[in-house]
Amino acid sequence: MIWRAGGMCLLLLSALSGFAQGKKAFQEPKLSTQDSYTMVILPDLQNYVKFQRNQPILDVMMNWVVARKDSLNIGMVLCTGDLVEHDDIINPDGKKMDQTGRQQWLNVSGAFGKLDNQLPYVTATGNHDYNIFSYTHKPKTTHFPTYFYSEKNRENKKLLREVFTNVYGENSLENAAYEWLSPVGKKFLFLSLEFAPRDTVLGWAREVVAKDKYKDHTVILLTHAYLNYKNEHIESMSYDLTDANPGLAVWDKLVKGSKNIEMVVSGHIGAKDNARKHVGYRTDKNAAGKTVHQMTFNAQAMGGGHYGNGGDGWLRILEFLPDGKTVQVKTFSPFFALSPSTQHLAWRHANYDEFTFQFD
After folding, report:
1. What is the three-class DSSP state of 34?
2. How many CB atoms lie within 10 A of CB 114?
3. CA–CA separation, 161 vs 178, rounded Å?
4. Which parts of the sequence belong to the Calcineurin-like phosphoesterase domain (predicted)?
5. Which distant-in-sequence residues (6+ apart) come within 8 Å of 74 by Cβ?
6. With the C-alpha atoms ordered 155, 160, 165, 170, is the resulting torsion angle positive or negative?
7. Topology at the third CATH level for domain 33-358
8. 228 vs 236: CA distance, rounded Å
9. Per-residue DSSP letters for 68-86?
10. Which of 34, 92, 204, 274 is the most exposed place for a label (fewest CB within 10 A)?
């Protein structure tokens, strides 16, 4: 009996050892080849900054990006907009949010301050960044220019090439273009447009991308509300705005007729703890017959919904391979990666979170 019990123990230990050896160890993101470079996409950040308790998660994300600047060869950071929950609220109820509008802008500006003078970044403006939720304000006015301006980050200022006016008639990074040369010599123009851009903005954007000096650039358009989770262009929005263009109109009036817009990045959508309903992807051909990769990435309702932790720390990593065409997309959470007890949750491997595409 003693021998048999001991044998069973040995068998059990052997099985457990084999399981442990077979279990895939956690790995931090790394380049598939040392000659690759990456871009990082940050989703809507509003639910991190509207609660004081959630802001440390956003700090973890930003600190992680800066710490991997060299190991991942990060060349650009893009944010899909909705930087704040409410542009100008002065009396939060403590339930929907506990930070005033000014506090929210200071919070998100401070978070991006970790990237300032370290990495270039471009951020869109979302519906929550504007005063469209208050009937006492002119539609689509925002405090964005007060907290995000060209001098804030010298890495941005070096790349800034074009700007356009906001509803006040003042030049603002709400509508701006940045020129960047990749480590392998690929020319990019990053074009950021305001939420539901006005017709005049789309007209300006058409003129910019058609300029001779950008004809050989790959243009990446960054705008807030563009695709839904069914991979369809958003046709309408539930806001009483005049001269405002949703995703389908942006496609029809700008992207489709362009010869060099080859990628669109957006956010805006999401459902509580449902990763699939935070993302979208589709391809169409532009006027030059080039494939346009259109990607929506968000995470704002992950981690408990709109009153949860802000989004579980999810971000997206785009690795551009040295061939100048292939891009590997991965979805990762620096927040879950912090602890050995949660590292098994730090990667999302569904086919809508991890895939490869190629520029023409």
Report:
1. coil
2. 16
3. 5
4. 69-269
5. 37, 38, 39, 40, 65, 68, 119
6. positive
7. Purple Acid Phosphatase; chain A, domain 2 (3.60.21)
8. 11
9. TTTTTTEEEEEE-S--SS-
10. 34
Cα 259 from Cα 262, distance rounded (Å) = 8
pTM for the whole thing? Answer: 0.92
What does the buried/exposed string (b/e) look like for 83-95 if buried means 16 or more CB atoms within 10 Å of the residue's CB?
bbbbbbbeebeee
Cite the beta strand spans of 27-154 per DSSP E: 37-42, 74-79, 121-123
Q: Are 299 and 278 in contact (CB under 8 A)?
A: yes
Q: Which residue type, as a one-letter code, is found at position 312? A: D
Q: 């309903």: which residue's tokens?
A: 277
Q: Going from the first residue of the chain to its last (360 residues), give the mean pLDDT of each consecutive group of 10, the final group possibly shorter.
A: 42 41 79 97 98 98 98 98 95 96 98 98 96 58 95 97 94 97 95 96 98 97 97 86 90 98 98 98 97 98 97 98 96 98 98 97
Cα 219 to Cα 43: distance, rounded to the nearest angstrom:
20
Tokens of 187: 């020319």
Q: Which amino acid is at 317?
A: I
DSSP tag of 26: P
The amino acid at residue 337 is: A
Q: Which of 111, 124, 92, 184 is nearest to 152 (CA)?
A: 111
For 280, the token pair is 């979208």
DSSP assignment letter at 255:
I
What does the domain layout of the chain look like in residue ranges? 33-358
- For residues 246 and 111, give the distance between their C-alpha atoms in angstroms, rounded to a whole number: 28
Dihedral (CA of 352, 353, 358, 360) sign:
positive
Q: Two tokens at 300?
A: 């704002």
Ordered DSSP codes for 209-267: HTSGGGTTSEEEEE-SS-B-TTS-B----SS--SS---HHHHIIIIITT-SSEEEEEE-
Phi, psi angle pair for 78, to nearest 5°:
-120, 140
**For 17, how many CA atoms within 13 A lie in the half-sphere containing its CB?**
6
- Copy the structure tokens of residue 136: 């006492």
